[in-house]
């Protein structure tokens, strides 16, 4: 029985996991770097331990983390997303010390973390994959030959990439020559691996991914899809569940493909199977993420399941207490990744002190964040500062709620992506539910919003009035 969990993460996801534990009467143990002394996850956990003065090293040291879990009497470790969540060493170190890793086993993580291995596994299981190179490409010459065979444009991708990094579109052999060394050096730095492969570039694709759950008793179900096509540089900004762009038949089809993929991987715990949907209506497997995802929230909102609690129960050995037929979704949900970035300045990170924070409320709203008034966003970690999740019975209600909630939210002290999201919500193509992964690139005018409008916001005025009243 899991009674005490060490959370090997920080920020909003650490807080999210602490909340899941609290509802299950499981004790939570936080870890933190010196830079995170005043972080919310440290205050919210039942216990917290500093794992070093370095900003990153402690969060990235599997052995130190597992030692601490043993010393503090934890029986499980939850990795969250990012950091060590897809590093097989943490899962292996847990297993070696008799600590439950809340996620799939090290072998599954290793196999699915290698995109070419995962692709081969899917081909064997009859899950369509994007046409591409046979495994990794060993040299520029091989890459050029393979690209000729696949046909331009191609995507040059890091085999162990993630977070949208290490991906370049190449429209010609010259492009491929230019990008080859660049991608290799980028992926070596970011992922410690120089392996790359090629995929056919799918034109105007939609990014459709499916949440799956697998237990230790052979049961695998899906919780329907998320549409993550609103991206900038291959990174998700807005996610929607279910996709407003699928027919009911396509919804069934992609759900079944995801279950087939998870079954082929003998998958246990929560995971996500990512697909591209071409403008011809074909789904192509892209990769599987073997962890909780940033956007799991919207699936929780439409399905009613607490996915983090499901992860803990599955790790505990409990069978899924329902079947696919029992999974019902209702309405729509949308998540905005509120990043501390300045959209008008090339999305430059905007770290610093949050001088005022006013959180929206009312029907259909959920805010997952670790910020508070007076909190200083450290420059060492990613720039996600809040996830704003809205829910509505219909697409129209969802859009109206999104506008209202983003207008209701105030963050001062740092620039955020909020005003940019308001522009997206007002765009006719977005309103019509027509967008692909090129949407933001095709609409640079979305950046022409007036800062005046956002500064004059009613929300900021309310926050300022409150601050003045309490003498902040
Ligand atoms: P999601 O797929 O859940 O939307 P993202 O791709 O946005 O997640 O990644 C979540 C976090 O994990 C980000 O901070 C990202 O930089 C990090 N990340 C994802 N994959 C990797 C990886 N292979 N190596 C290092 N960091 C990663
Ligand atoms: P990561 O591991 O960084 O999440 P993915 O393989 O999931 O990388 O790809 C991230 C994004 O890059 C996709 O959502 C999509 O927008 C784009 N992309 C990746 N592969 C292709 C492809 N073959 N054709 C078109 N777009 C692609
Ligand atoms: Mg991906």
Task: Please tell me about this protein's structure.
The structure is a single chain. It is built from 17 helices and 22 strands. The protein is of the alpha+beta class and 472 residues long. The strands form six sheets. It has an eight-stranded antiparallel β-sheet with strand order 13-12-9-10-11-14-21-19, with helices on both faces. Strands 3-2-1-4-5 form a five-stranded parallel β-sheet, with helices on both faces. A three-stranded antiparallel β-sheet has the order 7-6-8, with helices on one face. A hairpin with an 8-residue loop joins strand 6 and strand 7. Helix 4 runs antiparallel to helix 5. The termini are far apart. Bound molecules: adenosine-5'-diphosphate (2 copies) and magnesium ion. One adenosine-5'-diphosphate binds next to loops.
The N- to C-terminal Cα distance equals 46 Å
The value of Rg in angstroms is: 22 Å
Largest sheet: 8 strands, antiparallel
Content-based structural category: alpha+beta
Beta-strand content: 15-25%
Mean pLDDT: 96
Q: Tell me the helix content.
A: 25-40%
What is the spatial order of strands in the main beta sheet?
13-12-9-10-11-14-21-19
- What is the number of E strands? 22
Features:
24% strand; Dna Ligase, domain 1; 472 residues; binds magnesium ion; D-amino Acid Aminotransferase, Chain A, domain 1; Rossmann fold; globular; binds adenosine-5'-diphosphate; 17 helices; 3 domains; five-stranded parallel β-sheet; alpha+beta; eight-stranded antiparallel β-sheet
